Amino acid sequence: MGEAPHGVVLRPMTEHDVPLIHRWLQAPHLAEWWGDAGFTLAETQAGYSPAVMAADQVTPYIAMRGGRAIGFAQSYLAMGSGDGWWDFVTDPGVRGIDQFLAHGEDLGQGLGTQMVEALVELLFRDPAVTLIQTDPDPGNHRAIRCYEKAGFRAVEIVTTPAGPALYMVRERKAHPL
Ligand SMILES: CC(C)(COP(=O)(O)OP(=O)(O)OC[C@H]1O[C@@H](n2cnc3c(N)ncnc32)[C@H](O)[C@@H]1OP(=O)(O)O)[C@@H](O)C(=O)NCCC(=O)NCCS
What we know:
Helix content is 28%, strand content 29%. The two termini are 26 Å apart. The protein has one domain: Gcn5-related N-acetyltransferase (GNAT) (Aminopeptidase). It contains six helices and seven strands, in the order E-H-H-H-H-E-E-E-H-E-H-E-E. By secondary structure, it is α+β, with helices and mostly antiparallel strands. Helix 1 crosses helix 3. The relative contact order is 0.15. The protein binds coenzyme A. The site of coenzyme A has 23 residues, from helix 2, strand 4, helix 5 and helix 6.
């Protein structure tokens, strides 16, 4: 699957990974920007089961580095998301992405950028994919900078069902830093 030059590899998430995700979600560094920290295992199962996600056109991945699981990522078909999400997207080639690093000590070393680059590379292998979008909280400057380093450009602040977000896009040709 997707591999960045410095060794972050994405593998498909399986049902067996749900307890791992549940443990990861309790990490303090995720409470501020991810929001599922209070989930019970059953709630994590309901929200993160790959089969449930597939029904919603969402594909989950586990990021690996040197045999160690370091993070979670997901991609989704933006058009037709429903429930007020991405109503303005009319291109079926648009994919969206979200991700987090699992271990607080891994933050700020470029691994998130490698993870995003690996996912971008993986998604653009599909010729039907035209554009990749992401929607960090406007106050999440670390995530915004990470996406910029991975070739995304900020478009505008949009209102999503989860609140305001900075809509960012990555074309096949990366936006220069
Ligand atoms: C967002 C996330 C995946 C980024 O991964 P990461 O490995 O920490 O990011 P990187 O080290 O690749 O890049 C971070 C950049 O932001 C910069 N940065 C960090 N804190 C910052 C801040 N408060 N303001 C501005 N820039 C900041 C870093 O200096 C670095 O830029 P540089 O390389 O130019 O110096 C990771 O931090 C994470 O999992 N955060 C918690 C969950 C989350 O926010 N997910 C994203 C939801 S949209």
